[in-house]
DNA-binding Lrp family transcriptional regulator
Amino acid sequence: MNRMVDDQESTAPQALGQRRSVRPRRVDATDQAILTALSRDARQSVSSIAEQLHLSRANTYERIARLRSSGVLRGYTAVIDPRAAGLETAAYVFVTLKQDDWEVLRRALADDPAVRHLALVGGQYDAVLLVRTSTVEELRRVIFERIQSLNCVQATQTALIFDDHTQQVHMSPDDDGP
């Protein structure tokens, strides 16, 4: 088997603060079909996927294992409605950083459960954070006491989210792959 990743790499899902160096691997049409099936229902069995795609169970299992070990398939997750789970307050926090402090910000907020997404961006701001909390008071605490208190943060601007829609992303056979 031709491995496309270093032997030391973990196949565990990554936390927000972790980085993973993965060499790109070619995803063929069969791999794409497996990813499509898993993106629609990650709870289905390997046997079910194999049957749907007219593959052997062993081949399907091997391909899923290879997709995991190469970093293409990073894990399985539940889709949770944040409001139904009690996270009724949300905001995008736009952050201006001191020079070259992206990694400092990323590490500092990696384990903060209120920070649901953190992205380095180009343009007027350096980073955008999606923050979800149960109350406005908690949101205020996260922004003023947690984010703005970091030495790497020069300034923030907050946009409250009044309503949102999260599109469920499913791979389709027409996608070009990762």
User: Anything to note?
Assistant: The helical segments are 29-40, 46-53, 57-69, 102-109, 136-147. Residues 29-70 form a domain with the Arc Repressor Mutant, subunit A fold (CATH 1.10.10.10).
